[in-house]
What we know:
The chain is an alpha+beta fold. Helix content is about 25%, strand content about 15%. The site of 2-oxoglutaric acid has 9 residues, from strand 5 and strand 10.
Amino acid sequence: VATNLDLSKRQSPQWLEDFNRDGYAVIRNVFSLDEVAALRKAMEDLKVNQAKKGTQRPLDPQVPDLVYFYGDMLSAKGIDHLVFDDRLVNVAKAILGPHIVYWGDSTYHFGKGYRGFHKDCVDRSDPEGLDWKSEYDVIRMGIYLQDHERYSGGIKMRKGSHLYPDLTSGRAVDVPSHSTDLVVWKLTTTHSGNAVRCRFFPRTTLQNRWENRLPDILALPEQKERHTLLFTYGRPGIHLDRYIKYCVDRGDYHEHWRHSSYDEKLLERSRRLGIEIRKPTSDYGSAFRI
Ligand SMILES: O=C(O)CCC(=O)C(=O)O
């Protein structure tokens, strides 16, 4: 499928129609294979260098393979250009309109992580909440730097679930993303990471409980160590303000933001692109070291 990032045409691209209908979309061939290789290499270097700096997050015994670090993508050498990359910003603007906000909500993960259907929005378990009262406009993007069409480890989505304040609505689909693709979803969309595909029925989407129980021998392996980049943008307004406040109140973002920073060159670029930058905490960047 050809990428359709040319938004100058009057007709909206197929991925945008998919996104509006399903609450998520896969945009094919955003990156070249050379870029994918360079991003994987940059992440490998980060893994070594950030560990030396002592910014690795404590391991969670529930997901002992998952390695990730304090500090956002803008503060991470070799992947810092992505948040303001024209292609990704154009996708965000096609969905959210010309004024978008970034507030240090981005991260990069190594290895198998959490599985289980959930939503990311504030009112994930409150059907009466404001998230469900007007068009929801905070989105997350995922770059999965390996193949998830023929291998396990991808993301599952529930189609159309962005409109329902529960975790069961919408048909579950294993997103067949390739290393060169971009996946984008609303924070109201129900999703589950680290999908397992069955070796003998690779196109059958397994329920979480079967994914958790499937013996390794019956599961398709992962192609390579899972390398994932996740980042979030929003349109100014009530959903964004509530989401940022929710992250601040949760407390677990505090240390992440202390290790995040914006250098002047990137700030200048964000200004040119019309991206508003917010720093949600007063000590944002106070623990950042090059
Ligand atoms: O790791 C993934 O594929 C999904 C991450 C996720 O569930 C999230 O960002 O909320």
